[in-house]
Write a structure and sequence with these properties.
By secondary structure, the protein is mainly beta. It has one domain (24-168). It contains two helices and 14 strands. It has helices at residues 2-20, 148-151, and strands spanning 27-35, 43-55, 63-64, 66-67, 70-73, 83-91, 94-102, 107-110, 113-118, 127-134, 140-146, 152-154, 160-162, 166-168. Strands 2, 3, 5, 7, 8, 9, 10, 12 and 13 form a nine-stranded mixed sheet that branches. Strands 4-6-1-11-14 form a five-stranded mixed sheet, with no helix packed on it. The longest helix is centred in the first third of the chain and has 19 residues, at 2-20. It is elongated and about 50 Å long.
């Protein structure tokens, strides 16, 4: 009788823990953060609307992360300061690319004058960053250094264009 009770308790415990086991044990949390190096501008405002990722196993689809959309002054994120741009849960895999989809409110301030910045194709196809990082079974953080100093170009007609230089840290 004692053996039957032990077997029933063991079976019950196995059933309980099996039912409580997360079926997505291979899922990871991915956080994408933004930082910047020093620059000579007073402001470099980038209107980030959406962050998408592509993994090695997902060759045809971009995955949209929960994005903290808004206009970010890149110069606010210097000297070790960063901000969380997007987060999402996905299966363990190799992260191949990150895509920034930008809005229309991109600008640069030079000599206290705010200029609109042209961002060719950034509103449609987005800015792609090649990554090639394997995601582990814990929280993964990817810090992207959006280099404002190298990313802003003055055009011949006195306007400004955003040609992003983004490094993975």
């Amino acid at each position: 009788m004692k053996n039957v009770l032990v077997i029933l308790l063991a079976a019950g415990a196995i059933t309980f823990f099996s039912c409580n086991k997360d079926n997505n044990s291979d899922d990871v949390t991915l956080n994408i953060r933004l930082t910047d190096g020093p620059g000579d501008y007073q402001q470099v405002n980038v209107d980030i609307q959406e962050i998408r990722i592509k993994t090695a196993n997902d060759t045809a689809q971009w995955i949209t992360l929960a994005t903290n959309a808004g206009v970010y002054n890149l110069l606010d994120f210097q000297n070790g300061v960063d901000t969380l741009l997007a987060t999402g849960v996905m299966s363990t895999d190799t992260l191949k690319e990150v895509r920034f989809i930008l809005g229309d409110n991109n600008s640069v301030m030079v000599d206290s004058v705010l200029y609109d910045m042209d961002t060719p194709s950034a509103q449609e196809s987005g800015l792609k960053v090649k990554v090639n990082k394997h995601l582990n079974l814990d929280i993964n953080t990817l810090v992207l250094d959006f280099d404002a100093e190298q990313s802003v170009l003055q055009t011949g007609n006195g306007g400004y264009k955003l040609k992003p230089v983004i490094k993975v840290k």
